[in-house]
Specification:
mainly alpha; two-stranded antiparallel ribbon; 16 helices; 2 strands; globular
C-alpha cells in the first residue's frame, strides 16, 4: 500500500511541473506557476511523497507492535527508533545541567559577562547578516548589465534546503564529538516541527517578493496580537492589563510605520499586497506551531538542543530535497548557481549564518534563559530594520521611525512585566512552602 501511494504521488509530482512549467526569472512572469499559491500546492504535493508512505509504514509498525516483535539489526533498530523511540530513565539535559552549574556559582561574574557578550555578538552577527543577504537574494537581479537584463532567483524552497542541510551537518558533527543524553524521542515526531519550520521559512522568503524587509520584521514583532486574539477566542484565556496595554502600543506603532513608509519591493508599484499579508500570516501560524511542538518534545522526552536541531533538520533536508528533485527545481537552481557565481557566495554565507545562528540560539537559551534571548533578538529586529533601510534605501518617515520605536518600547515593557510577574510568583510560592514547613 505504501509503495502504491508513493508511486502515485511520484507520478503526480513529475507530471505537474511539466504541465505548469517553471517559475519565470524575470520581473513580469506570465506562467501559472508564477502565482505563489500554485507553488505552495506543488510543494505540499512534494512533501506528501514522504509523509503519506511514512505515515502508512509507522501505523503498520505500531499496529503489529514492532518494538516487541522486531528483531535486532541496523534496519530493525532504525524502524524501532523511527516509530517508537526508546524507553529509558531520562538523564539530565544540557539545559538543566547548565542551570544547576549557574546556581552553584561555578562561573564568576566576569566569565558570565564575557559569555553573554559572546552570545550577543554571535546572535547579532549571524542574524543581521542573514537578514541582509535574505533580502539581497530575493530582491536583486543577478547578471544585470547595461546591455543585458538580469534575472531573479525565485526558488524559495531551494534556499530552505541549503540552509537546513548545512545545519544538519553541523548538528551531526556536534553529536559525534560531544556526549549527549540518551535519545528517547520517536524520530517521526521531528517531522511535524520540521514541516512547519520549512513552511514558515518558505512563507518568509516568498513574502519578500511582495513586502519589504522592514515591513516583514514589523509583522514578526506584532505577532503577539493575533496570538492573544486566538487565545481569547479559542481557549477563553485571560490576560493581564499590561498585556492589553503593550498589544495596543504595538498596534499603534505598526500602523504608524505601515501607513507612512513606502514599501517598495520587487513588484514595482505594489504596496503591501494581499499576497504579502497572507504569506506573513502563514509565517506566523507555522512559526508558532514550530516553537510549541518543539517545546512539547523538550518537556516530554528531555531531548537536548543539538538532538532537536539535528532531528528537525534531517527531516527538513529529506522533505525539501525530495520535493525539489521531483519538481526539477533542484537542477534549475544549480544551473542558476553556475551561471551567477556571486549567488553561490551569497547562498553559502546565508547558510553559514542560518546554521551558526541556530547554535547560538540553543547555547544562549541554555546559558541565560529565554528572557535574555528574547531581549537580544528584539534588539536584533530593530537593528535589522535600520540596516535594511540604510543598505537598500527603503524610505522611512519621521512618523514611521516613531512607530518602530513605539513597537520595540512595547516589546521591552512586555518582557519586563512578564519577568517581574514570574519573580513575584516564585517568591509567593517560596513563602507558601516555608509556611507549610
Amino acid at each position: 500500500m505504501a509503495g502504491l501511494w508513493c508511486f502515485g504521488l511520484l507520478v503526480v509530482n513529475f507530471i505537474v511541473p511539466c504541465v505548469l512549467g517553471t517559475e519565470s526569472t524575470t520581473e513580469q512572469g506570465n506562467n501559472l506557476v508564477d502565482f505563489w499559491i500554485i507553488r505552495f500546492v506543488i510543494n505540499l504535493l512534494g512533501y506528501a511523497t514522504v509523509f503519506v508512505p511514512g505515515a502508512i509504514i509507522i501505523n503498520y509498525l505500531r499496529k503489529i507492535k514492532y518494538n516487541e516483535t522486531g528483531g535486532h539489526g541496523v534496519l530493525q533498530d532504525f524502524l524501532r527508533n523511527l516509530a517508537f523511540g526508546k524507553e529509558s530513565t531520562l538523564p539530565l539535559t544540557q539545559e538543566e545541567d547548565s542551570g544547576k552549574k549557574r546556581e552553584s556559582g561555578e562561573e564568576s561574574s566576569v566569565q558570565r559577562g564575557l559569555t553573554l557578550l559572546f552570545c550577543v555578538a554571535g546572535l547579532q552577527g549571524s542574524y543581521l547578516t542573514w537578514g541582509v543577504l535574505q533580502e539581497k537574494i530575493m530582491t536583486s537581479e543577478y547578471g544585470r548589465t547595461e546591455s543585458s537584463q538580469g534575472e531573479y532567483f525565485k526558488n524559495s524552497q531551494f534556499l530552505v534546503f541549503i540552509n537546513r542541510i548545512l545545519a544538519f551537518l553541523i548538528g551531526l558533527v556536534v553529536l559525534l564529538v560531544k556526549s549527549q543524553p540518551t535519545h528517547t524521542t520517536p524520530l517521526y515526531k521531528y517531522s511535524f516541527s520540521s514541516f512547519s519550520n520549512i513552511m514558515s521559512s518558505w512563507c518568509q522568503y516568498e513574502a519578500l517578493k511582495f513586502v519589504s524587509f522592514p515591513t516583514q520584521v514589523m509583522a514578526k514583532a506584532s505577532k503577539v496580537i493575533p496570538v492573544m486574539l486566538m487565545g481569547k477566542v479559542v481557549s477563553r484565556k485571560k490576560y493581564d492589563y499590561h498585556e492589553y496595554f503593550t498589544a495596543g502600543l504595538i498596534s499603534v506603532g505598526v500602523s504608524l510605520f505601515l501607513l507612512t513608509s513606502g514599501d517598495i519591493t520587487r513588484h514595482k508599484g505594489s504596496v503591501t499586497t494581499v499576497s504579502g499579508v497572507i504569506l506573513l500570516m502563514g509565517y506566523m501560524v507555522f512559526d508558532s506551531f514550530t516553537s510549541n511542538w518543539q517545546g512539547e518534545l523538550f518537556k516530554r522526552y528531555k531531548v537536548s538542543s543539538i538532538q532537536m536541531m539535528t532531528g528537525v533538520n534531517l527531516f527538513s533536508c529529506l522533505l525539501t530535497g525530495v520535493s525539489l528533485i521531483e519538481q526539477g527545481g533542484f537542477f534549475e537552481s544549480v544551473a542558476f548557481m553556475t551561471k551567477h557565481p556571486d549567488f553561490i557566495f551569497h547562498a553559502i554565507i546565508l547558510s553559514l549564518c542560518s546554521a551558526g545562528g541556530q547554535l547560538f540560539i540553543f547555547y544562549t537559551i541554555a546559558q541565560f534563559g529565554p528572557v535574555t534571548f528574547t531581549i537580544i533578538m528584539t534588539i536584533r529586529q530593530g537593528l535589522a530594520i535600520l540596516l535594511s533601510c540604510i543598505i537598500y534605501g527603503h524610505p522611512v518617515t519621521l512618523v514611521g521611525i516613531m512607530g518602530v520605536l513605539i513597537v520595540f518600547l512595547a516589546l521591552f515593557l512586555r518582557i519586563y512585566a512578564n519577568q517581574r510577574k514570574r519573580a513575584l510568583q516564585q517568591k509567593s510560592q517560596q513563602a507558601s512552602n516555608l509556611s507549610k514547613v
